[in-house]
Predict the 3D structure of the following.
Amino acid sequence: MFFAKDVRNESIEIYVSFLSDIIEKDNQNFKGLFDVIINNVHSLAVGSKTYNEINPEIFDIVSLLNFYHSAYFKEIDTQAEFDYNQIKKFLEKDAVMNA
Amino acid sequence: MDYLSLELNLAQLHRSIQKTKTNKYSDIRKESYQTTLLELYEKLSNEDFSTMSLLEIIDRKKIIDFTFQSIQYLDNSTLTITPFEIIFCLEKILSFWIPQHNYIIVTSLDNNLNSYEINYSLTLKEPIHQLIEDRYGITFGFRLIQIRMPRYYVHDYFANVALYHELGHFVDSKYEVSKKYVISSHIYDQTISPEANGAKMTKRYYHCMEHFADIFASQYIGDSICLSLNYVSHNHSSSETHPATAIRITKVEAFLSGVTTDQLVTDILAQTKILCSHDLEIRFKDLPLDDFDNLIPMEIDTDVDLHSVILAGWKFWRRRPNSLIEKLGKNIVYKIINNLIEKSISNYIIKQNWNN
């Protein structure tokens, strides 16, 4: 288990809810938030950022996605529309793994 | 999970929130937080849960949980319960390490004698605040940090050195010092699964957190953190969550010696400097004990003295022979020293308020 069974797992569920809002309601607030998260995971995956450079407020979600799905985020095109459905599937799986 | 259970949960919240309305606080920020909480409750109670999707029901459950937890913290932190002086000391440190923060330290008292714990799930948990803001347009101006401490030690400045350690955990988590260090320095073992790698890293992370918190505390209260630790968890061996007590003490001693070659301590110091913009360094001094000998509070002039007075209490107790103990007995001297420490801090608070 990567993360302790604490507030972080709860946060994963809330992030899943944010992604649903992006997918179903085109929620721009959450889209902005997730775009920052995805860009940071990509930067970590390709090595253009270090862990110390990640904002502590999103560190849990960024490091979690990078730890389990680094290969996927390494290859994403940061100029194109992100596949939020795929990221939601990742987080739903991670929430189970960390439960 | 269905909407009927959610309605039951809201009714439970209603009963608790009615009691909270009568709370009296010494801190107007707590009142402001409570007002926002009541506003959130009103929004929740005006919703029709029966038309919601499962995902929306899960969201609302989380918001009700958040509201309940906030109430629990506030109810335990009213005018009559809060140990004002020690919280003042901790707030001084908090403001130094996290300038211009919006945190309120609240306390809850526990019957368990070893129950020192800091809970910052409402403080550093951004997603729930983002959810509330998006759903209801409500923003909390403050965040609560809950410190749980034993009821019997609420005014005990010997036992309460543990609170400095707990505050260390908060500062660590705020900047993610231990986590970033452990993840960055983790060597991935290809022979085991990702989950097993994660488990190894989690243990290292927990241990690093404890060392950070010990060193953080010792900046202000010196080796009294070791004396306390060595008594309450003497000879404890290493576990999943905590390093062995002997190792913890060795790390603090290495830090206090000022010339450490201990790799982990060196790494923690370097990582803290990068992420917190402050050094972990000795921030206490040895105060003369004459005032305690003369049964008068110490005159505190600076924040350094403020924390050092607690260390002075420990030094006074351990100084043997001790003519005051011989004259009055240990039980009375224990009470006197605690009262003198509290009075010293209290006088400093008055002086600061007067100057401001």
